[in-house]
Structure formats: C-alpha cells, structure tokens
Amino acid sequence: MLHRLAISDPDDQVRFLGEIGVRGAGSAAAELRNLGRAAGAKTPVGFRFSDICRAEAVVVIGEDLPVIQPILGVEVNRAARNGAALVSVGPEGFRHAREASIKVEIPSGFETDFLSALAAMILKVRGQSPVKSTGAAKFKAGLKAFDLAGTLSALKMSEDKLAGIARVLEMRRPALFFFGPAFLASAGPAGGLAALWNLAVLVEGRIIPLDAEANLRGGLEIAGAFPTKALSGEELAAAVARREVKALYIAGPLPKLEPGAAEFVIVQGSYDGGNAAVADVIFPETTSFEADGIFVNVEGRVQRSGEAVEPRGEARPGWIILGELAARLGYSGFAYTSAEDIRKDIARAIPAFGNLGPVPPPQEGLFLAEEAARRAAFIAGDSLPERAAGLRPATPRDPDDYKGLHLARENKSLKLVRGR
Fold it and tell me: How far is it, in rounded angstroms, from Cα 386 to Cα 340?
C-alpha cells in the first residue's frame, strides 16, 4: 500500500513529495536488514516453519504471538512440547506463550539492559572458553565494565534466574530469537536490536523478525526492487499538521485526518471507515477476496490468491483504478490488461514471482531468494552510522486495520484469537 503526497510550491505548481509505503517504518524485517547492512553483514530474514521444530531453544521477546503471528505461535508451542526450551520475555503483566518454560518480566524500555546482562552472564558461565566470531575482543572488552549487579537490581531479577537462562542458551543449540514491532518500539531498532544481534552471535543462534501485517514481506521486496523517494510517517504527519499538504491520495493505512487537513483528499479503499469521512473523492477498491493477486507470508513464501467472490457494487481492483486514472491524466506505463501482466512485470525484478505460472510449484513451495548468511560478527555501537544509531521506528499500526475495516472488531473468531 502506498500513500502519495503532493504539496504546493510558492509558484502554485504542485510537486510530488514522496511515497510512504511498506518500505519499513516499524517493520522488524526491514530494521534487521538495515542493521545488517550498517554492520556490513548479509542478513537473510526468511525462514521455514520447519526450522522452529528443529530448535533446541526459542526466545520470544516482547511479542504476543497469538496477536502478531497466530500460526507461528502454534509452531513455537509445538516445539516446546517436543522438548525445546521456550523463554518468553515481556513487560509486567505480559501474556506469555502458553508453553513457556521460562517466563521473564522486565520493565518496559529495559530490553537492551536485559540482553546485555544476559550476554555478560553467558560469558561468566562460559568461563575461559574462546569466542571466535569477528569483533569478539571488542565485544568482551565492552562487557567488562558492564554493571551486572546494578542492572539486575533495575530489572528486579535474581542472578540465579539470569544464570539459568544463560545456561539454557549455552547448552541448547540451535537457538532461535523472535522479535517484532513491540520490541522495536520499546527498545529501539539500533541499540536494542544490536544487543539482540550480539547475543545471537554469542550463542551461534538466529534472529527471526516478525511483522504483524500480512504481505509486508512482499511489500518490502517490491519497495527494494523499485526504489522511490520516501517520507517517514512522522514527516508526513508533520507536513499535514503544518497545513503544507495541498492534496492527499490515500491508498492505504494512514492515521485518521481531521476535516480540512488537506485541501483535497482522495481515498481509495474498501470500507466506509477511517479517512473516508473526510474524503472529497472515494474510489471503491476490491478486497483481497475479490481480486487475483500474490502475497508473501512471514517465511518469505510466495503464494497466489484467486478471486473467491464477485466484486460488489462499483468496486474494482486497485491496479485498474490507477490505470484508468493515469490514462486520463496522460501518463504511460499503466496499460495492464490483467493482474497476470503485472505479476510478470514484477517478476523481471523479483524472479520468484515469475514462478507462479500454470505449472504447479515444487512441493517445498516458492520462496523469495536471499543471499546466504555468512558467519556473523559482533556489532560495536560506534561502528553504526549516526542515522542508524539514533533511529527510532514509526509507531506500528494496528494489524487488524484492513482498508478501513477493523477485522478483530467485526469477526468474532479473530477477536477470540487476538484475545480482545
């Protein structure tokens, strides 16, 4: 989904300011990739559900799996029932994973302290055993001055409990570490994620990012393959608040606007909710159940989605709406005749999308291609670019907000799954 924004120049000519889309604001997968690039490391973000079953230890940090990833939550609980140690970490009152063998509650915002304390304790438990990864000497030197006793006091945690977690991660490998938007919002994508990265390197574990929105992985791939000038959500909100926005074309999630926030507002959506109330023009768009398309799940698995029901009323697929609008404005390059034509066009940049033709996919499925990870190195805080070190993600939106409809409020079964 993309939000297009235009503002007026002093000479009253409208210029394009940018796009705000699925490029990574608040996205766990995007932030992990960004951190890896800043550290000069290859960072695959895809995985397989079958990887979870092979894990000896699973650590879930700050995420309520039935809310953010219900299917993955089932796999994590299954791994725990099969003998994996499941460590669930969250703030006070957090709803821990059902099968968690170790439940850890820490004050919100202290995630970096906890992860650093755990790394220090692992080194203490390990004793004189060498740490072979690149950057180990600098990492260990940084932890020598770490105030473990003071941190444990701030965390309201006993040394014995922390030592128990450290022994689990030392003795049970491979270990998987899951994090998502809640962790990023509380700990930050630089310091907090760097601490998690270093902990995973220390125990030769693997970090798996979780995002709450369906198809966000697909959006990230498209945004990477077709780069555009982008604005952050905060920049857009600031421009709207300063009344600098002359026109808004909203074709995706955006915080609710006040009347008069822009001179002219177009909303392309499927439900009469959200910003439809302040729209000057509404383009009714089909839902995912009324149109052909493709989507990518949290694993990176590429799948097709066919039209299940006929579109209602005047609703049409988004690509048809934009194509007709572009034609009337005199723009070329939008003359697609089917969703299949668009898929083939995208496949020139993302080959995995081109393998969804009439031939059945291989039994293991189709996955986005990623470069294999090399042996990871420790990240030192002073090695990160200034932008990455100070970056904080945009507040993640409600994953149940679908084109103006709040799914968990409308669907009783989903409401039960979410625990709302």
Answer: 43
- Integer distance in angstroms from the first to the last C-alpha of the chain? 26
The side-by-side arrangement of strands in the sheet containing 301-305 is 293-296, 301-305, 366-367
Using a 10 angstrom Cβ sphere, with 0-12 exposed, 13-18 middle and 19 or more buried, the burial of residue 407 is middle
Q: What is the pLDDT of residues 192-238, one digit of tens each?
A: 999 999 999 999 999 999 987 778 888 888 888 888 776 766 777 78
CA dihedral (219, 4, 33, 52) positive or negative? negative
Query: Which are the contacts of 40, defined by CB distance < 8 A and separation ≥ 6?
Result: none
For residues 101 and 82, the answer to whether their CB atoms sit within 8 Å is no
Nearest to 115 by CA among 106, 124, 102: 106
What is the rounded distance in angstroms from the CA atom of residue 376 to the CA atom of residue 84?
A: 24
Q: How far apart are alpha carbons 400 and 214 in whole angstroms? A: 10
CA distances from 248 to 130, 257, 259, 286, 316 (A): 57, 11, 13, 20, 20
Tokens of 247: 């026109």
Residue 303 phi, psi (nearest 5) = -140, 155
CA-atom Rg of the chain in angstroms: 23
Ranges 25-29, 83-87, 313-317: which has the least confidence: 25-29
Sign of CA dihedral 383, 384, 386, 389: negative
Looking at the domain covering 28-214+372-418, what would its CATH class be?
Answer: alpha beta
- Output 51 or 234, whichever has higher pLDDT: 51
What Cα–Cα distance (Å) separates residue 372 from each residue in 42, 187, 334?
7, 28, 35
For residue 41, give the nearest of 119, 118, 112, 134 by alpha carbon: 134
Tell me the per-residue pLDDT of 266-287, one tens digit each, with 9 for 90 and over.
Answer: 999 998 877 888 999 999 999 9
CB 47 within 8 A of CB 300: yes
CA distance 387 to 190: 9
This prediction has a pTM of 0.84
Question: Is 31 within 8 Å of 209 (Cβ atoms)?
Answer: yes
